[in-house]
Known about the structure:
Layout lengths: L8 H15 L2 H14 L3 H26 L3 H8 L3 H32 L3 H17 L3 H26 L4 H9 L6 H12 L3 H11 L8 H31 L9 H10 L1 H28 L6 H5 L1 H19 L3 H25 L3 H4 L6 H29 L2
Helix pairs in contact: 1-7, 1-10, 1-11, 1-13, 2-9, 2-11, 3-8, 3-9, 3-10, 3-11, 3-16, 3-18, 4-5, 4-16, 5-6, 5-13, 5-15, 5-16, 6-13, 6-15, 7-11, 7-12, 7-13, 9-18, 10-13, 11-12, 12-13, 13-15, 16-18
Keywords: Membrane, Transmembrane, Transmembrane helix
Membrane topology: Multi-pass membrane protein
Subcellular location: Membrane
Amino acid sequence: MKTKKGFDFSVLMGAAFLMATSSIGPGFLTQTTVFTEQLLASFGFVILTSIILDIGSQLNVWRVIGISGKRGQDVANMVLPGLGYVVAALIVMGGLGFNIGNIAGAGMGFSVIFGMDTVTGAVISAVIAISIFVFKEAGVLMDKFTQAAGVVMIVLTLYVAVSSAPPVGEAVMKTFVPDVIDPLAIVTLVGGTVGGYITFSGGHRLVDAGVVGKEALPQITRSSVTGVCLTGVMRVFLFLATLGVVASGLQLDPANPPASVFKLAVGDIGYKVFGVVMWSAAISSVIGAAYTSVSFIRTFSPKIENNYRWFVIAFIVFSTVVFAFVGQPVKTLILVGTLNGLILPVTLLVMIIAAHKKSIVGDYKHPVWMSIFGVIVVIMTAYMGVLTIMKQLPKLFM
């Protein structure tokens, strides 16, 4: 199906779903349930605020990438020579570290569904992810897979939300008039939704598909906003499911909060449903992290550019081998988590600067309100990043 401008609609939706499913990983599920348990109905305000900030942030990145037709690392190098290599290094390190966690999440999902060993489930999941990139039409297959995974997660979580019978009226009211406002939760959600490699995943997919230039601006804008909204829909459904469970007086299992939400809301079958959602979230994040991380280095060498699918496969294989033989190295995850907190403010600031450089965007005029939104997010996430570093660095030396 083609849009009025001749762009493939499936590519635009594929980019949106790639971004959305990249952000909806194992951490997303745990983060949402824990914050809901702490803030109750007032967490709706946090979700709404974060969605607004996410849209402002993502529009800055996707529009600059789309108008220039260049990936994030190349834009960064044009803003300041050499900066693109630094950004690429941060993205790849962060993506690799979190992909170990994503592989673990996929293994856990299979373990819940089929009762198999987690490592075996992780290896099978990795093979499924790798199979997508074996084919030349990897981009099309990736689009279809992430769309399917996204729909499965959203539909099943909606089912659990309805089953938990949440106080919807209270949730709506507290979304606009909260009992408590938690700035830390807002910044955490923004970083988890558009931080690290995530906000670039869909933008780079559009560049690969040739959806670039001023004539593609409406499609780029629509796809970027759709991605954030899809993530928001999933978060709202999970928020309502958790709120329904907590409001009924039931206690979540601190060892696995999201799993207990599904089980308490729907019973034993709910635990199997959680396994499907966990696997879908994890495997789509594996694909998104691997694809986007490699996209940040593919323009640095013709060998990588010409064989990028095999580099994506190697990325997934390495992540799986580390998990299978080492497990989830705690200090590595702490380090990449700390670095990830620095990626969004750095890359977003670079994109805002690039949006006003004619050598990058030509005669395109970037809306002032987008730049203002972007600067707000830069300040918020930079502050959060500094706090995270101060908190996490001591753990690296324990």
